[in-house]
Amino acid sequence: MAGALKIPRDSTATDTLSAKEESGFDAEVDYQADEYITFVQDSTGSKVLMYKNADVKYKDIELKADYIELNRDSNVVYAIGKPDSTGKVVGKPVFTQGSDKFEADEIRYNFKTKKGIVLGVITEKEGGYIHSGRTKLINDSTYCLVNGKYTTCNLEHPDFYFELTKAKVLSNKKIVTGPAYLVVEDMPIYFVFVPFGFFPSTSKYSSGILMPSYGEEVTRGFFLRDMGYYWAASDYFDAAIKGDLYSLGSRGVKFHSNYRLRYKYSGGLDVKFYKNVFGDKGLPDYRTQNDFAIAWNHSMDAKANPSQSFSASVDFSTSTFDQYNSYLAQSILTNTKQSSISYSKRWENSPFSMSGNLRHSQNSRDTTISLSLPQLTFNMSRIYPFKPKISSGKEKWYEKIGVSYSMDMQNTINTKENKLLSSSLIKDWKNGVRQSIPISTSFKALKFFTISPSFNYNERWYTQQIRKSYNEQLKQVVVSDTLYGFTRDYDYSMSLAASTKIYGNYIPYNPNSRIKQIRHVMTPSLSFSLRPDFSNPRYGMYESIEYFDQKGNPVSLRYPVHEGSVYGTAGAGKSGSIGFSLNNTLEMKKLNLKDTTSTETYKKVSLLDQLSLSGSYNLAADSLNLSNINVAARTKVAGVDLNFGAILDPYVFENGHLINQFELTRNKRLARLTSANLSFGYSFSSQKEKETKKKAESSDSEAIKHQQEIEEKNRRQQLGEVPEYADFSVPWDIRFDYSFRYSRPNPSVNPNITQTIDFNGNVNLTPKWKVSFSSGVDVQKMDLTFTQLNIFRDLHCMQMSLNLIPFGFRQSYSFTIRATSQLLKDLKLEKNQSFYDRGQF
Asked: Bigger pLDDT: 511 or 411?
């Protein structure tokens, strides 16, 4: 167009024009402005001048600014902000192309060549910010800059940054710089200097070198930890291999991989191997220690196959691995490790199901290890064989008879860690098959009683049995022979149980009382069970030997030929046992006066969740017929859960053993307290934390998300691969737990009493300062248990942390100042003293 078109200034007027120019642009250009648009012609070409909130769109490019000048002949656009009445520049140019977006003081850009000059630009690249005084755009994905800054601080004037003398940015790929040095709070730190730099800048994960951390330990010397390579294999799995080197000879290698197939399965694998060197070669204290650890987790998506599942949780290591190679208090304090690999399947529209498990358990204190390789289970859920397919009339008692079946097969060993690989599958491993067929039913009797008769049959298959004899030299009975071959063991029992409920109600006489009713529910039950004496020779599961003891007295001993087998053996001695129990609950109904938002007039309050007593009496025993009396109680007081338990022995203990005389007869008391325990715990938190928990509990999705965040945080912290940062959003939360245990089976010996108080919490002293702690008190010894203190300081885009274990075997500290962004996780100042160096703490 020749000439000019001017739209009058009007705060409500907005004009939008569209044009496709034959001489310049190869696509439609949309432009608009709030105040007015002017078309002019001069020596440089035909121009469109746009004022106030101008906006130009061309293909995937959008430019916004307070003032924009578009040359339709040269395809060049010029944008700049304008000062307002206070002198502050507003409406700075904002350039957007695809996923790239930046703000600048001034932009001159050629739509055709895709080149331009940008002044005062701030660009965000995957969590990193690039500040540049002058930038040259080479094309739509590459630009160069001089005297720039790179930081992860989102402030216009960043707290820290790398001063870049020159740099080249490849969009969605990487940033390559020339000489650069660190600047903190506008103070240059020239000794933190790099001749060149490389910053990944991509929305997709990519392969690359993993930079190590460095430091010193007195035991193992100077070190470089976690140096290695990360391989971004595909969208389905990745892998990383890292190594640790110490100047005194110790070294280690670590492998980590994650994998995931959506709607199918996900998991991760970690393998670690260390060779630690202690002392100087040639000296008496020189030694080496080899340690390894394997961790594997796998879960199958429930949507993949509803009728079967496969999962794995493997945590296996040598007993000294955590002692020498772990830096997390939680791992160091853990004495036991367990693993499980399981597969399960159920057949639809049938009562049958099966499962297979590989289990592992180990104790690092005594180096014992237990393996089950494998454990197979086949189950048939309860069926009712006498129940007709089409029922008519009242259900008969025999129609309620239910039968179920279970089969369990196991191959297991319990040995020391150093003997595992040399163990014999036939002689050292224990294996067997156990089958169980329970038959039961229940019916009402005399209107208020529930009668439940049952019959249970168990059979065990083994591949070996033992023979014993008396060793004259050792003067004791020993296993003299082991016979290999198929053999069986079985037992059966019958029982009859009856139970009912007794209700007691109390209604206050005062009609104005807030308490409307108190209800007491008692559930008494009585059972009778009968089992034969399977040590009788006619069953063929026990053998006998006769010998003379050291005093010359004849002794006849019966022993089970399957003693020590994986599923045990049939019990000796017949049993006709009467079992009894009494359970009590106490509830109160009162007016609901506190909760004004509730529509419920009354509120139910539990006064006593449980108070139970249980025991048994063996009619077939020749003495000590009455068993111990077990007492258990559970209630809640002022929001605190109280748990109590006790064991009472009704018989007199004399000369190191029980005698067939009741405590009531001898000592005028019902029973003797042999053990007791009491525990309770309580947590306090700020109102903000309570609201967060309440919100999460009110929504299943929020609860799942909250739990997933906790699990992910714990996983990252346990792996030690990603620095863990403090959460400053919770003002405070504190929890303590109390535990009391009393044990005195022998009244002539002083009781064994243990009392512990454990407490932990997080406190935000200010919005920027956070303290977390965990400790405990052994009340009996009046000594502190394992204590840990963490202090965090939020420095906006950086964080300071102090981790302190002030005393004990793990006495250590670690002080760190690091960038919070993962892009600059290696930018840190660290000083630590590990527990290896506790003598110089």
From this structure: 411
Q: Rounded distance, CA 225 to CA 214, Å?
A: 6
Alpha carbon distances (Å) from 83 to 65, 90, 110, 728: 12, 6, 25, 38
Q: Is the pLDDT assigned to residue 152 strictly greater than 60?
A: yes
Question: What is the residue type of 158?
Answer: P
- Judged by average pLDDT, the poorest of 49-63, 159-173, 295-309 is 159-173
The pLDDT value recorded for residue 690 is 52
Residue ranges of E strands in 446-514? 449-471, 476-499, 502-506
Residues counted in the chain? 841
Residue 691 has pLDDT above 80, yes or no: no
**Cβ(407)–Cβ(356) under 8 Å?**
no
The angle formed by the CA atoms of residues 336, 836 and 224, to the nearest 5 degrees, is: 100
* CA distance to 449, 451, 453, 579, 672, per residue, from 496 (Å): 13, 7, 4, 10, 30
Return the pLDDT at 620.
Answer: 83
The CA-atom distances, in angstroms, between 424 and each of 216, 544, 681, 758 are: 45, 29, 48, 45
Instruction: Tell me what pLDDT residue 525 has.
Output: 95
Given a contact cutoff of 8 angstroms between Cβ atoms, the answer to whether 240 and 208 are in contact is: no
Q: Return the minimum-mean-pLDDT range out of 394-403, 512-521, 700-709.
A: 700-709
Asked if residue 31 lies in contact with residue 70, where contact means CB atoms within 8 angstroms, the answer is yes
| Angle, alpha carbons 453-454-455 (nearest 5°) | 140
The reply to whether the predicted model has a pTM over 0.90 is no
Angle of helix 687-698 versus helix 700-719 axis, rounded to 10: 110
- In sequence order, what DSSP letters do the residues of 440-458 get, joined into one string? E--EEETTTEEEEEEEEEE
Helix (H/G/I), strand (E/B), else coil: 464: strand
The predicted structure's pLDDT at residue 272 = 92
Alpha carbon distances (Å) from 458 to 405, 408, 490 = 10, 11, 6
* Distance of alpha carbon 516 from alpha carbon 508, whole angstroms: 7
Q: How many CA atoms lie within 13 A of 345 on its CB side?
A: 3
Residue 823: pLDDT over 60:
yes
C-alpha angle 20-26-27 in degrees, rounded to nearest 5: 55
Question: Three-state SS string across 588-604, please?
Answer: EEEECCCCCCCCCCEEE
Burial class (CB in 10 A: 0-12, 13-18, 19+), 167: buried
Which DSSP helix (H) or strand (E) runs through 741? strand 732-743
CB-based contact 63:50 (threshold 8 Å): no
Tokens of 679: 């525990």
Contacts of residue 165, Cβ cutoff 8 Å, sequence gap at least 6: 146, 147, 177, 178, 179, 180
CA–CA gap between residue 49 and residue 67 (Å, rounded): 8
Distance in angstroms (rounded) separating the CA atoms of residues 291 and 319 = 8
The Cα 161–Cα 189 span in angstroms is 11
